[in-house]
Amino acid sequence: MVTGLSQEEAPPLPAEPAPPRRRRRRRLTIWIVVAVLLVIAALAAWIGVRGFLARQELNAALPAAHSIQHAIVAGDLASARSSAVTLEKHASSAAALTSDPVWRAAEIAPWVGPNLTAVRTAAGATEQVASRVIQPLVGVAASADPRSLAVTGGRVDLAPLIAAQPVVAKAQAAFHGAEKELATVDASATIQPVGSAVERLRTLFAEATPAVDAVGNGAKLLPAMLGAGGAREYLLVAQNPAELRATGGLIGSVALIRADHGAISLVAQQAGTSIGPWTEPVASIPEGPTGLYGPLVGRYLQDVNFTPDFPLAASTASRMWTLKNGGTVDGVITMDPVVLAAVLHATGPIALPSGDTLTSANAVHLLLSEVYQRYVDPHQQDAFFASAAAAVFQRVAAGGIDGSALVSSLAAAGSSHRLLIWSAHPEEQAVLASTTLAGGLPISTASTAGIGVYFNDATGSKMDYYLHTSVAAGAAVCRADGKPTTRIAVTLANRAPADAATSLPAFVTGGGLSGVAPGLIQTRVVVYGPSGGLVAGTTKGSAVDSTVSGTDQGRPVAVLTVTLAPGEQKTVEVDFLGVKQTGTQVAVTTTPTLPGTGSTPDVGTESTIGSIAVDCAGGVK
Question: Could you tell me which residues come within 8 angstroms of residue 412 by beta carbon, excluding any fewer than 6 positions away?
């Protein structure tokens, strides 16, 4: 008898076939996934190819940008135009390759997105600079370049510059717009090649900014300041760095210059000693400068620039001139013999009524040392200075000089703060305030402490011809609250001959009239700390005779008096606590002092700026 199989041993029943609809749905899903993957792959390939091509275009654009810079400096406008066309072609292509809808949509993807955004932004900024900045500026370079503003017969033709003003203004605005757009890129969120390219482009922008702003600001200011809208009158103030003041030197002489529709003339000259003094300040001097420098700032022309705040010093000097001579002063311009020597590079040697020949090589020594050996009477000295200044002015006004060399010399003087300009017209002063010509107090940012180190003579003499100074600065975070400490070390040396007390004229040594023995150099070292900061400490002991502290426009200030015998050197230090700063970068501005020359090896050399490492334990590495 056959028995049945158990349930466990029964063969499996055949699987029931899937319904046709379910099979179709499954195949459709697979095809959709495959299609999506194919689309993603295609998009990736599209973006990758376009990104590669955009990179090639940007790399090709860089040489053209450098060529434009070199061509403009050389005055080769034909080459500059050709390179500008090449630059715009490559930049426009790069921008088009990175701005299509596919690229923009992919920017929302994690990780990849920030890189695509960075590339697009960099390409767009480059294209904007190429098409809206470089092309227009190259087109008007012959008119807008200050080097082309030749003086002919005592007159500057302002028409080309006036015509170029709208183009230059738009180009300057477009440049800073592109700069701001590039600043929005977070390079830290990108891969190394992309981040490196962005940083390199930012560096190029930073290097180009001074040139773009120089052209833009020049186009804004020069026509009006040269009298396009009516006559202007300016004080040309000669500073004497042999007797230091914070902005550069004692005011030795003043000339009144008139500019009327481009025609420039010398109206009058006066010795600084012939203006004032007054028994009361001629202008309202803020409490800060008065407490730091005393009441003489507002009473004596020679002392208005004890304060390093050039707008304050210039407006006070302007007031003094008008009180004595009447009229209206539209602005104040400073210069010193170093600026004069730079101008002489462009003019060539100039014969003086005294029989001397003034050259770029002998100007500093002749005007700041030899004249005191030759003339004992201060009036004779003043007459010599006045004749030299007038001779140089007349040579420049006559025209026919190397405009490129002249502008380059004046630009160098401006960057070293030897050439300062203040305008009595608020709209012009607002433009000047952003330049190195303004001579304002040091500016601090959240990451950078703006430091000022200035020198005021306290000897009452011309001994600063022999003074050598150097400055070193550094910062570190030494506190638990993260506030940085900034240390400033200032070294001064007296390089006068050992027998200076007897070998130098009394007019140079001061003759002891101010209480300082002949041969010594007494200097008030003025150190401005970061905005909103505090003086944390100053050097005590034999290096410093006295110390005064205060504030000026929200900046802590320390004033240290140092006395040096011939051959002696001393170093003073000041520590500041940064209250508003979070970074440890330091930017230092100093009084321009005298450069050394081969013909006068004993002269002090121009102040150098170095760096020091702050040891939080109290020392300096």
Answer: 342
Q: What is the DSSP string of 274-328?
A: GS---SS-SS---HHHHHHH-GGGGT-GGGGGGSS-HHHHHHHHHHHHHHHH-S-
Q: What is the pLDDT of residues 147-201, one digit of tens each?
A: 566 677 778 888 888 888 898 889 889 889 988 988 898 888 887 877 787 888 8
How do residues 518-574 score in pLDDT, each as one tens digit? Answer: 999 999 999 999 999 999 888 867 778 788 899 999 999 999 999 999 999 999 999
Quick count: other Cβ atoms within 10 Å of Cβ 19? 9
Q: Are 323 and 301 in contact (CB under 8 A)?
A: no
Count H helices and E strands in the chain, helices first: 18, 19
pLDDT in tens, 7-50: 555 555 555 555 666 666 666 566 555 555 555 455 455 566 66
Residue 16 corresponds to which tokens in the numbers above? 């029931």
Q: What are phi and psi of 269, to 5 degrees?
A: -135, 140
* 590 touches 454 (CB < 8 A): yes
233 near 328, Cβ under 8 Å?
A: yes
Q: Mean per-residue pLDDT for 229-233? A: 95
d(C-alpha 210, C-alpha 175), whole Å: 12
Q: pTM of this prediction?
A: 0.84
DSSP per residue, 350-402: EE-TTS-EE-TTTHHHIIIIIHHHH--SHHHHHHHHHHHHHHHHHHHHHB-S-
Beta-carbon contacts of 19 under 8 Å, excluding residues fewer than 6 positions away, are none
Residue range 433-453: average pLDDT? 91
Distance CA 295, CA 443 (A): 26
- Looking at residue 369, its amino acid is S
